[in-house]
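ok so for the tutorial part 2 we go from a plain amino acid sequence to predicted structure tokens. step 1 is just haveing the sequence, like this:
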Amino acid sequence: MSITNETLALDSAAQDLLFREAHTVSAFTDEPVSDEQVQAIYDLVKYAPTAFNQQPLRVLLVRSTEARERLVAHLSDGNKAKTLAAPLVAVLAADNEFHEELPELFPAFPQAKDVFFSERPVREASAGFNAALQAGYFLLGVRAAGLAAGPMTGFDAAGVTKEFFPEGDHTALLVVNIGTAAAEGAWFPRSPRLAYDQVVTTV
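step 2 — the prediction. this is what the tokens look like for a chain of 203 residues:
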């Protein structure tokens, strides 16, 4: 089956920016990432779907040198240098107390706070899954802003959680370096992807 650009609503340039030409980036220029750019990203990605509109994703921007060093202490060795050098680093976390916002965020059924999420293990499972959905949108938002993202799971999640969320109400999920991709050596050659028939079945 042949797929043409006309099959999709986005034009070819937007498809390339968000998907085909996008890479996980390890090297950036020194061009800063402003708070205004992050705000623009969030204004796009806040519409990501979540169960009960719970929106558990929380984003911690790590800007100061002191905070960057605290974070890097919990990263795997291969992620330390590039994180120290990145223009901006974001820690994406799940708010395990998201249910406190449900009466406002899900007015169609405000009782959901107590009916479905009164128990901490249930909240943690739901927060982790739905924040991961939002994290995927966040990465696309970074790309849509004309920036590049370097998401990493190579870190001590428990250590980062304790370091930056000591009250225990958040769980660190992902560390993302953000900036403008360097002209050379910004990414590795693209690895293979599974074919359509390997992923999609019909019943």
